[in-house]
Design brief:
146 residues; alpha/beta; 5-stranded mixed beta sheet
Length: 146
């Protein structure tokens, strides 16, 4: 069975290949199916919606079973921010260090007991023949350190 992993992230592609190693699954990259230039805008207001958008778009463009994910950090003291905007939290082109610095600055006066947060990941698999998404959500609770 072919499975298209809808990401430009080479590290993520390696991780998915490792996850399905030993199974009868042929993991394909976007470049393998000629879709390396297709960029699907994440316009959803939830991680689930964004994962579904990407999985459906790549499945329909390729005709292949496609897997996409969306994930991010939600901080309770910031009303759930950065949320679905985690990758763009500090602006376009910002580094991980820039995003961490902005987050820590936003929480500088927040007491430890109010620094609760969670990381959430949505994974969607879209079957282009059935036009149905299958979605799984995972959540990991924690606190933001200083």
């Amino acid at each position: 069975m072919d499975l298209l992993i809808a990401t430009q992230n080479k590290g993520k592609l390696r991780e998915y290949r490792a996850i399905v190693a030993g199974l009868n699954i042929n993991v394909l990259s976007l470049d393998d199916v000629g879709l390396g230039k297709l960029d699907v805008e994440e316009t959803g207001d939830t991680f689930k919606a964004n994962a579904e958008l990407k999985a459906a778009a790549y499945a329909q463009a390729s005709g292949k079973l496609s897997l996409a994910d969306d994930s991010g950090l939600c901080v309770d003291a910031l009303d759930g921010a950065p949320g679905v905007y985690s990758a763009r939290y500090a602006g376009e082109g910002a580094s991980d260090a820039d995003r961490r610095a902005k987050l820590l600055a936003a929480l500088k006066d927040t007491p430890d007991e109010q620094r609760t947060a969670y990381f959430i990941c949505a994974i969607a698999v879209f079957n282009p023949q059935k036009q149905i998404p299958y979605v799984s959500l995972g959540k990991f609770n924690g606190k933001i350190a200083h």
